[in-house]
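Hi everyone,

Forwarding the result from last night's run.
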Amino acid sequence: MKNTLIKIAICIVLTWAGWQLTDKGMSGASKEERLKYEQLCKRSVKTIGKIDEQYEQTNIKLIKGSKGADIYTFNYVYTVDNTDYKGHFTINHLPAKWETDVWYDPTNPSLHAESEPCERMEWYKKRDYPSWWAWIGIPLLLIGAGTLYSTLKSLLKSLLAPKPRQ
């Protein structure tokens, strides 16, 4: 029994480590996105975008039979020098007002962001993990979770199996 508990603890640690490495390795921003926010951080202008009252609502259910979570996708329009530019964003609640802040590059107004670009750059810098972590994390996660499953299954079988008569 002691060996089984140690094996379960090791499996939990492997699964947790795999999850963390996979999450961090896959959560980084692409180079294009980093360059976009870097450029906008250096020289962006803030304006107001008008959110279209037509939106797309998606219900995501992670567990069968659950209520799920609603995700809303909105389109918006912002105007620069009498030219309209379009964008979209996704959030998990309805907006309080039908406007959004938009930061755009004055030399290329179609390059824009819905969140403050310098704050976003700092957020990315704090989460700058190499993508190869995911390639280590995925096998750890699968090995840990698979071994944990088989260990728990064997443990339950041995605990619930009828005892032989003496």
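The first strand starts at residue 45 and ends at 60.

Cheers,
N.
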